[in-house]
């Protein structure tokens, strides 16, 4: 039963999902001023607060056996959190608004698009938002000279994978929450702890062993790890494990997200 | 009866049926025993109907009668629980994409894109049907002119009145040049001017030969727009036919309406075997000879507030579905 449901669901996803992606992109361009500003301004605020403020107390941190500047340490962490926030909040709050308040999906599913197409389009758009946010933030961070090129360019294709994961995670919650306020729970139970404890603002080695293990089970830890290594101009072989983790987690999340949305919307 | 029936040779009757089938044009929509259940609740309870090409077919019924549930199954947004449903001769369960490519749907709620202009709402919608950008622009212009919205083409949605929004939703439903247009309560919540404008456009579409499916709980709307209609209640179809014919056969030609009637009048009416109904202070008599009934009552009771009028769909509707309030 579940197997045939999943097969049906996958079969109902087509190239037409790009139409939904195009629709969301068009809205993004209509409202571009409000969209471009946050990813550019946010890192500057963080780098000022943490770089000039906390950085005055902690000049350098030990990371993988060597000392690096504190701002150079947190800058890739900020990129990782940016991808997470952009993708996750797109497929939670924004998708919910389109679904519930604007009834956009009700209209689209009367055209040749299936509900699965619409959801896949939403996921692709959430992913794109993550990559756009990451790219804009890279521009701002690069102005501080905190990224090592050309390795750092690989952060962009990687942000697509990270975006796919967080978009999928977001859609699962959208399929379950009773009302838009309920997103506070996943936000404060998953997203904010990841934001703070995924090796974003301090190296994980300072934590006790058990806490490190928990941190390494969090997806953002893997995302931050890859982005930091690439940003520092390195490509150690253990990054493959992070990639395997993210791919293995993303595929079921996408299927589950679309499944939950279908259960919610098809009555 | 049964004996007579069994005497009929089976062969010729089968040929007759086959002939009838051949001469009848294929139905645009055909439902047989169509059923929709939501958990324990049966919203549509085994209805059968057929809608022919070029007709305007109405679904009338109180709230919760099963109109919208039926419509949602037709435009493949809601799965069929049981029974058969074919649109353009295709099974809704097997070919939803092909069916939906040929349908235009105007839903109850205004679900326009608030971030787009009037024109952009149409071109983005055209893209879902795979219509190329230049053709989409052309169609948008054509439809906005047809619906009287061209002047407002660059307006934002929130700047539009309810009537204009509704016209835009109808324009959007026409963007793929559909063979079937579905209007789910198209004038609910509109002021009289806007309603008449919408009706005028729907009538024009009907004249152009478009097949239209309309749900409404406004009797005047059904009476002016529909060639044929069904009245639904509690998930079943109560009657089916052209509105004028239904009223004549089920209600009669005229209605005598008496306000503030004396109790004795009820006995008087009952004695004469007239078909009638009452609520707290009014009494209706359904008849083919309104003038005679009126005279008889006036002679006996000399009532001031007694009127004769032509029977309408509303009389039929209330007679069939009762006068008690719905959710």
Separate helix tally of chain B: 13
Q: Beta-sheet strand percentage of chain A?
A: under 5%
Largest sheet of chain A: 2 strands, antiparallel
CATH class of the largest domain in chain B: Alpha Beta
Element string of chain A (H = helix, E = strand) = HHHEEHHHHHHHH
Number of helices of chain A: 11
- Low-pLDDT runs of chain B: 1-18
Q: How many strand segments of chain A?
A: 2
Architecture of the largest domain in chain B, CATH level 2? 3-Layer(aba) Sandwich
Topology of chain B as a string of helices (H) and strands (E): HHEEEHEEHEHHHEHEHEEHEHEEHEH
Report how far the terminal alpha carbons of chain A are from each other.
Answer: 18 Å
C-alpha termini separation of chain B: 44 Å
Radius of gyration of chain A: 19 Å
Q: Structural class, from helix and strand content of chain A?
A: mainly alpha
Q: Give Rg of chain B in angstroms.
A: 24 Å
Helical content of chain B stands at 40-55%
CATH superfamily of the largest domain in chain B: P-loop containing nucleotide triphosphate hydrolases
Mean pLDDT of chain B: 88
Quaternary arrangement of the chains shown?
heterodimer
Mean pLDDT across all amino acids of chain A: 93
Query: Uncertain runs of chain A with pLDDT below 50, 5 residues or more?
Result: none
Detail the topology: elements first, then pairings:
The complex is a heterodimer of chains A (267) and B (327).
Chain A lengths: L1 H10 L5 H14 L1 H26 L2 E4 L2 E4 H32 L2 H5 L6 H28 L12 H20 L9 H14 L11 H9 L1 H13 L7 H27 L2
Antiparallel strand pairs in A: 1-2
Helix pairs in contact in A: 2-6, 3-4, 3-6, 4-6, 4-7, 4-10, 6-7, 6-11, 7-10, 7-11, 10-11
Chain B lengths: L1 H6 L2 H14 L5 E10 L2 E11 L4 E5 L6 H8 L7 E6 L2 E2 L4 H6 L1 E4 L11 H11 L4 H14 L15 H12 L6 E5 L7 H16 L3 E6 L2 H7 L2 E6 L2 E6 L1 H8 L3 E6 L3 H9 L3 E4 L3 E6 L2 H12 L4 E5 L2 H9 L6
Helix pairs in contact in B: 5-6
Keywords for this entry:
heterodimer; A: 267 residues; mainly alpha; two-stranded antiparallel ribbon; 11 helices; 74% helix; B: 327 residues; alpha/beta; Rossmann fold; six-stranded mixed beta sheet; four-stranded antiparallel beta sheet; disordered N terminus
């Amino acid at each position: 039963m579940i197997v045939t449901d999943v097969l049906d669901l996958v079969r109902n996803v087509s190239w037409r999902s790009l139409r939904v992606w195009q629709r969301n992109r068009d809205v993004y361009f209509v409202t571009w001023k409000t969209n471009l500003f946050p990813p550019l301004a946010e890192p500057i605020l963080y780098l000022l607060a943490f770089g000039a403020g906390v950085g005055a107390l902690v000049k350098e941190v030990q990371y993988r056996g060597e000392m690096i500047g504190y701002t150079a340490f947190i800058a890739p962490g900020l990129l990782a959190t940016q991808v997470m926030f952009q993708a996750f909040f797109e497929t939670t709050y924004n998708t919910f608004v389109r679904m519930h308040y604007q009834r956009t999906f009700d209209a689209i599913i009367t055209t040749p698009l299936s509900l699965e197409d619409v959801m896949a389009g939403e996921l692709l758009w959430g992913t794109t938002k993550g990559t756009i946010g990451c790219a804009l933030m890279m521009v701002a961070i690069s102005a501080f000279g905190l990224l090592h090129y050309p390795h750092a360019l690989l952060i962009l294709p990687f942000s697509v994978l990270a975006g796919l994961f967080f978009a999928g995670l977001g859609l699962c919650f959208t399929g379950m929450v009773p009302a838009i306020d309920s997103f506070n729970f996943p936000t404060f139970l998953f997203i904010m702890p990841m934001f703070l404890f995924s090796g974003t603002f301090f190296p994980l080695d300072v934590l006790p062993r058990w806490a490190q293990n928990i941190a390494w089970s969090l997806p953002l830890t893997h995302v931050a790890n890859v982005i930091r290594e690439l940003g520092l101009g390195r490509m150690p072989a253990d990054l493959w494990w992070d990639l395997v983790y993210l791919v293995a987690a993303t595929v079921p999340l996408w299927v589950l997200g679309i499944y939950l949305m279908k259960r919610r919307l098809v009555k | 009866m049964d004996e007579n029936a069994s005497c009929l040779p089976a062969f010729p009757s089968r040929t007759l049926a086959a002939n009838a089938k051949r001469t009848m044009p294929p139905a645009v929509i055909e439902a047989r025993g169509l059923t929709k259940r939501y958990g324990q609740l049966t919203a549509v309870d085994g209805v059968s109907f057929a809608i022919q090409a070029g007709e305007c077919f109405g679904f009338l019924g109180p709230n919760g009668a099963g109109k919208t549930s039926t419509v949602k199954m037709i435009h493949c947004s809601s799965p069929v629980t049981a029974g058969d449903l074919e649109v353009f001769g295709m099974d809704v369960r097997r070919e939803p994409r092909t069916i939906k490519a040929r349908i235009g749907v105007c839903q109850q709620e205004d679900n326009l894109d608030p971030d787009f202009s009037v024109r952009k709402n149409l071109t983005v919608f055209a893209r879902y049907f795979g219509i190329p950008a230049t053709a989409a622009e052309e169609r948008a212009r054509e439809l906005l002119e047809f619906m009287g919205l061209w002047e407002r083409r660059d307006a934002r949605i929130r700047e539009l009145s309810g009537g204009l929004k509704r016209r835009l939703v109808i324009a959007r439903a026409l963007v793929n040049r559909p063979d079937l247009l579905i209007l789910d309560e198209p004038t609910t919540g509109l002021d009289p001017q806007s309603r008449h404008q919408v009706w005028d456009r729907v009538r024009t579409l009907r004249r152009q030969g478009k097949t239209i499916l309309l749900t409404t709980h406004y009797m005047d709307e059904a009476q002016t727009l529909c060639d044929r209609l069904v009245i639904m209640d509690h998930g079943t179809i109560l009657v089916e036919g052209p509105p004028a014919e239904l009223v004549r056969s089920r209600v009669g030609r005229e209605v005598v309406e008496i306000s503030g009637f004396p109790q004795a009048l009820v006995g008087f009416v009952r004695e004469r075997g007239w078909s009638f109904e009452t609520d707290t202070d009014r009494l209706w008599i359904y008849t083919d000879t309104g003038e005679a009934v009126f005279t008889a009552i006036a002679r006996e009771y000399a009532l001031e507030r007694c009127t004769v009028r032509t029977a309408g769909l509303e009389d039929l509707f209330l007679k069939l579905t009762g006068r008690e309030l719905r959710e």
